[in-house]
Structure formats: C-alpha cells, structure tokens
C-alpha cells in the first residue's frame, strides 16, 4: 500500500513542481513515513529485505533539512498569500473571498499527521503563530478520523493536544491552554503527571493574573525521546500592555520620487512599506509568481 502511494506520486513528475503540497507530502513520506513502516513491529516477515532496501537507498532519500525546508516554504506561501491552513490541508490555494490563487495539475490534501508535522516544526522553533494554526487543523482531522491510524503515522491525537495546549500557553492564552490540557487528561492520558502539574500551574496563573512563575510549566517532550520531559525553552510572548508604543511617519529618504508619495515607515524600525505599488501591479506580480510556486 505504501509503495503504491509513492509510485503514484512519481507517475507525474511535473506535478511535484506544480504543487508544493505534493512536494511536501512526497518528501515527508520518503524521509519519515517509510522508516516508520520499515522499523515497525508489523513488518516482521520482510524485515531484513526492507532494511536492506532502506540502507541501499538511504543516502539518496530526503533528509531532515529537506523536510523542514519544504515545511518552511509552505508556511512562507501561507503568509505571503494569506492562505488559510484549512484550505491548504484540503489542497486548495485560495484566500478568503478571493478566486483560486492557482490550480495545480495534481490535487493533494494533507493528512492529520502531515498537519501535525507542520505545527511541530513551528513549535520547535518557537513560532507559535503557525504552530497553533497547523496543530488546530491536525486536531480537527484526528477528531474526524474515527480512530483510524496508518502504519506510517508518527503522531496521534494525544501528541497534538499536548503540543497545542503548550503552544497556546506560550502565546499567552492560558485559559485555552488549561482547557486543552484538561481534555488531554480526560480523553487520552489521565495519569500524565507533567500535564497534571501544568493544569495546576495554569489555574494558579489565572487566579494570580500574572506570568511571574510561568517557568514552572513544562511542554511536551521530544517525540523521539519520551524519557526527557524538558522545560519549554522559549520565553512567553509579552502581554499587550507591555509592548512598546508604535508610531508611523512619512519618509522620503531625500528621494525626489517619494516627495509626492512618501513611504510610510513605522517606529520602532520595522520595514513594512504600504501603498508602494498599485493593486494592479500587485496582482500582476502574484500572477507571475503563481507559476513558479
């Protein structure tokens, strides 16, 4: 079954270039899904042959950097074109209330396991904005999967709830982190001491209304090292009232072309130029770029 999926993907090589979702799915399948099957308990009859085949091809398979690079590229597309995660998971490149950005030659959707990997990669880099969006979609897909599980899957509903709860906590939403942690204890692992301690800590933080002792909460351990329950290494996002005041000024940089229409420049210095090109020019650029994504 796994071989048939990979073989089907190779039947149309141009589709890999045409559809970044398909490229990500294939790279992930070759990088992690195949080893998960090869080294599973279910593969007892042909273990030696499978291991030999994997060792023979291992140097030619995509590595971790390739997989993470494909995930980051997909997130860049998500940000640049304001694409919804739910739409991407369904294989649709479309902004809200806009026509399709592009229609790849081959349609592909992402599984709950794929969405979890996207969220987990963002989580590991402290990018909780993306981790929450992708883990929420993974949670939704896991909940609608009717407890079905594929041999190559590396994640589960339990992993998703665990990482999503701590992502919300690190993003400053303690109440939702508490709610998800309670769901984790109720439906997946009631005996998990780390999550139980986090629940108590979340309650205390909500009662105190402060982040003073946030370091006592622990995020989920790495998936490949279940014996190490490490402290979350990232600092919490500051509360909105503690953010520095922002301002915006008109800037010409002594450029005569900007005298009639100066660029809008914020302070602190974060370069985000507004009204720099016309809407028609922007649509033309996006149309040209869509051919190469």
UniProtKB/TrEMBL annotation:
GO cellular component, one term: endoplasmic reticulum
InterPro entries, alphabetized: P4H_N, TPR-like_helical_dom_sf, TPR_P4H
Domain Prolyl 4-hydroxylase N-terminal: residue ranges: 3-94
Domain Prolyl 4-hydroxylase peptide-substrate-binding residue range list: 113-207
Listed Gene3D superfamilies: 6.10.140.1460, Tetratricopeptide repeat domain
GO molecular function, one term: procollagen-proline 4-dioxygenase activity
One Pfam short name: TPR_P4H
Source organism superkingdom: Eukaryota
Protein name: P4HA3 hydroxylase
């Amino acid at each position: 079954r796994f071989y048939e999926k990979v073989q089907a993907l190779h039947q149309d090589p141009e589709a890999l270039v045409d559809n970044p979702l398909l490229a990500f799915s294939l790279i992930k399948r070759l990088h992690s899904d195949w080893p998960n099957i090869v080294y599973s308990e279910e593969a007892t009859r042909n273990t030696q042959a499978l291991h030999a085949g994997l060792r023979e091809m291992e140097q030619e398979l995509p590595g971790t950097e390739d997989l993470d690079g494909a995930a980051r590229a997909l997130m860049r597309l998500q940000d640049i074109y304001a694409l919804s995660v739910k739409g991407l998971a369904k294989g649709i490149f479309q902004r809200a209330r806009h026509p399709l950005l592009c229609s790849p030659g081959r349609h592909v959707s992402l599984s709950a396991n794929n969405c979890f990997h996207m969220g987990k990669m963002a989580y590991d880099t402290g990018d909780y904005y993306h981790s929450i969006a992708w883990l929420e979609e993974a949670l939704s897909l896991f909940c609608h999967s009717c407890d079905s599980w594929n041999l190559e899957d590396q994640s589960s509903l339990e992993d998703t709830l665990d990482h999503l709860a701590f992502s919300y906590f690190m993003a400053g939403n303690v109440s939702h982190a508490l709610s998800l942690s309670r769901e984790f204890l109720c439906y997946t692992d009631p005996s998990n001491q780390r999550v139980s301690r986090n629940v108590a800590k979340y309650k205390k933080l909500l009662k105190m209304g402060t982040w003073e002792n946030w370091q006592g909460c622990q995020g989920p351990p790495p998936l490949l090292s279940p014996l190490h329950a490490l402290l979350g290494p990232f600092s919490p996002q500051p509360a909105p009232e503690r953010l520095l005041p922002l301002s915006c000024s008109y800037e010409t940089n002594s450029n005569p072309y900007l005298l009639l229409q100066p660029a809008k420049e914020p302070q602190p210095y974060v370069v985000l130029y507004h009204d720099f090109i016309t809407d028609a020019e922007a649509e033309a650029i996006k149309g040209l770029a869509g051919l190469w994504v």
